[in-house]
Automatic annotation (TrEMBL), chain A:
This is DNA replication complex GINS protein PSF2. Component of the GINS complex. It comes from Coemansia interrupta. Residues 12-71 form the DNA replication complex GINS protein PSF2 N-terminal domain. It comes from the Eukaryota. CDD domains: GINS_A_psf2, GINS_B_Psf2. One of its GO terms (biological process) is chromosome segregation. The gene is PSF2.
TrEMBL record, chain B:
Coiled coil: none annotated. The GINS complex plays an essential role in the initiation of DNA replication. Residues 74-156 form the GINS subunit domain. Signal peptide: none annotated. SUPFAM superfamilies: GINS helical bundle-like, PriA/YqbF domain. InterPro entries: GINS_A, GINS_bundle-like_dom_sf, GINS_Psf3, GINS_Psf3_sf, PSF3_N. It comes from Coemansia interrupta. Belongs to the GINS3/PSF3 family. Component of the GINS complex. This is DNA replication complex GINS protein PSF3. Residues 7-57 form the DNA replication complex GINS protein PSF3 N-terminal domain.
């Protein structure tokens, strides 16, 4: 099947969003419901007002039909994000710890369950700030580019996806160049050895020559 | 010719770049005989032939292939001074691919390419992230084919998150017929 060039370069954002929907979130159900037997495991039973853990896709489904309230995860609190923003902006700091799918989860929660999240506008703004400072950090990470490896801890799925084509192409190119450089060095060394052995040969000739 | 990228269309296209050659033998019947001249190609004459042809003839000792002017020592030194301001598109459309192919003949070329690539790829990353503007226009127009491809896919990837935030990333959209 023909794959579009964009899909060849990694995931598309809707695909990542789909993957993120398997993460669990905490909800407070509004109605009583028996436990649900799903392929990935059992969720429930739902007894309001007891909190339960469900996959994100189920939470959004329930939320849309007004059968639950989503409890915002700890990392999606205003104070916490503010702290992260400060940490992120410190010079020479590493990437702060966030869930692997934080952008996707935040986007879904802020679209579907905006009323359940306190200070959602502020959170939106902070997420934007966070993303921008992380983006400039990944750019600085580019300077460490080498053909062997690249390490950036705590980078999220969407951010990795964002820089994937660049790294894929440049790794490939650098790897090719490196092998060529090695090969040329090897051949130079060999020719040097050859010169030396010639020189040695001449020496032995000279010394064996009766003077 | 290197068999490395036998199926790579860019590699094949890059092999049409011309290299200066020095003929070692007389070749009969291969010159253009327009205007009643002889169709003989004389030994010791200079030709500029596509790399794919020159490489093969070089292997069979019909001619001496020389390093293309693009990768001559002088131009290498010149480009190394400021890799970011070199107009690769004008110099050679397939600079990197061609350089990779030439590296069998000229062992210093990989070093040159490496320096050039490392400096320029960082600028490409910056341009991809910040988007096109007037200052980067000159640089964007100086990219060779491979760099241009990289820049394009990078810009796509960089724009993906923004587009998705604006709900533009979804594959399913209303057919134009359904509108209004």
């Amino acid at each position: 099947m023909a794959v579009s060039s964009r899909q060849k370069e990694g995931f598309t954002m809707p695909e990542l969003e789909y993957l993120a929907q398997c993460e669990t979130v905490t909800i407070v159900p509004m109605h009583r419901m028996e436990r649900l037997e799903l392929v990935r495991g059992t969720v429930g039973p739902f007894r309001p007002p007891q909190k339960t853990q469900v996959p994100l896709w189920l939470a959004t489904m329930l939320k849309r039909t007004n059968r639950c309230r989503i409890v915002a995860p700890d990392w999606l609190k205003y104070e916490h994000l503010q702290k992260l923003c400060k940490q992120e902006e410190e010079p020479d700091s590493l990437f702060t710890k966030l869930p692997f799918h934080y952008l996707e989860i935040a986007h879904i929660l802020l679209t579907v369950a905006e009323d359940d999240i306190a200070e959602s506008q502020g959170i939106r703004r902070l997420l934007q700030d966070l993303r921008e400072s992380r983006q400039s950090k990944t750019l600085r990470g580019m300077e460490m580019l080498n053909p062997l490896q690249l390490q950036m801890d705590n980078l999220s799925a969407a951010e990795i996806n964002e820089i994937r084509p660049l790294f894929r192409h440049s790794f490939n190119m650098l790897r090719q160049l490196d092998s060529l450089v090695l090969a040329s060095e090897k051949s130079q060394q060999q020719s040097q050895y050859a010169d030396q052995s010639y020189a040695g040969l001449e020496d032995s000739f000279v010394s064996s020559y009766p003077l | 010719m290197s068999k490395r990228n036998y199926y790579d269309i860019d590699d094949i296209l890059a092999s049409q770049e011309r290299v200066p050659c020095f003929l070692r033998t007389d070749l009969d019947g291969l010159g253009s005989s327009g205007g009643g001249g002889s169709s003989k190609v004389h030994r010791n004459s200079r030709w500029s032939l596509p790399f794919w042809m020159a490489d093969r003839l070089n292997d069979e000792d019909y001619l001496d292939m020389q390093v293309s002017l693009v990768f001559s020592k002088q131009s290498n030194r010149m480009y190394a001074a400021s890799p970011e301001s070199v107009d690769l598109r004008n110099i050679c459309q397939n600079y990197y691919q061609f350089g990779l192919q030439l590296s069998e003949v000229a062992p210093e070329v990989p070093h040159v390419l490496h320096n050039m690539y490392m400096t320029r790829i960082q600028k490409i990353a910056r341009v991809a992230q910040q988007g096109n503007n007037v200052e980067t226009l000159d640089f964007v127009q100086s990219l060779d084919k491979m760099e241009e491809d990289i820049l394009r896919v990078c810009q796509h990837a960089q724009g993906a998150i923004t587009a998705w935030h604006q709900n533009k990333a979804y594959a399913l959209q209303k057919a134009p017929v359904i509108h209004n």
